[in-house]
């Protein structure tokens, strides 16, 4: 009687255990399927590629456990496989959150650059005759962008992937709107300020910080943008070899105010402020014979200046809009036109 009872209890107990193993196997199968989906969706969306490799290995491990006979699983169980798979899944999910946060941070950084340019142009166009509506549109775009940026800052602490992705996308959209509004304002200013097609309004014109300018060594009251000075020095050295004297520099970088005082709307000689390459530190006016077409000095410069990154622009050529033999520019001056 005792033996019979024991058998019955063992049988019942064993049945319960078998049921538990089946349920546990279902859990592992479900978990594995979810992990496989995560492996697929996480492609290109993690910061640590090794987490996906780890997940892939744990999925293979889980699959091999699931392929084992029920009897084997009865003795070994699936607990280890489930725990390892869960840890690998967590690692991928954490890496995906990090990746999504990185996208938001990147979007915020690129927003900052667009914002800086927009604000510079907004300020530079104040009181310059541009339609107020065009400026108001940029201001509105900047306000909307600032709000999105503040919201994104809060979202950064979220672990919700969809929310993070939405924040990054929204920042990108806002940046585009600000960029378009900035270009519209810049074009509007250009249209009313720079009458000639070879001129381009630039918010930096006449406002180059002194740290970005460099003194011309043989003409110390004159400055050009620091990055174009080495070419000018080399050009001068070659010129000196040919003519025994330095290039005569009569004009170089001009501040916004000095360009404004030179500008005479009834004469094409000086460009309106904001439209001159002198204001960018990329132009010099040269004398010592160069101020006349077809002199030896002018001809020499025409033949040699480009070797050193300097050129005589089309508008100043004989027959150009303003024939100015003396006006020379860095080749960089026309890069943006
Ligand atoms: Zn000039």
From TrEMBL:
SUPFAM superfamilies registered for this protein in UniProt: Hedgehog/DD-peptidase
Annotated coiled-coil segments of the chain: none
Pfam family, one: VanY
Entry superkingdom: Bacteria
Record-linked InterPro entries: DD-CPase-like, VanY-like_core_dom, Zn_M74/Hedgehog-like
Chain ranges of the D-alanyl-D-alanine carboxypeptidase-like core domain: 224-329
PANTHER family listed in its UniProt record: D-ALANYL-D-ALANINE CARBOXYPEPTIDASE, PEPTIDOGLYCAN L-ALANYL-D-GLUTAMATE ENDOPEPTIDASE CWLK
Identification of the protein by name: Cellobiose-specific phosphotransferase system component IIA
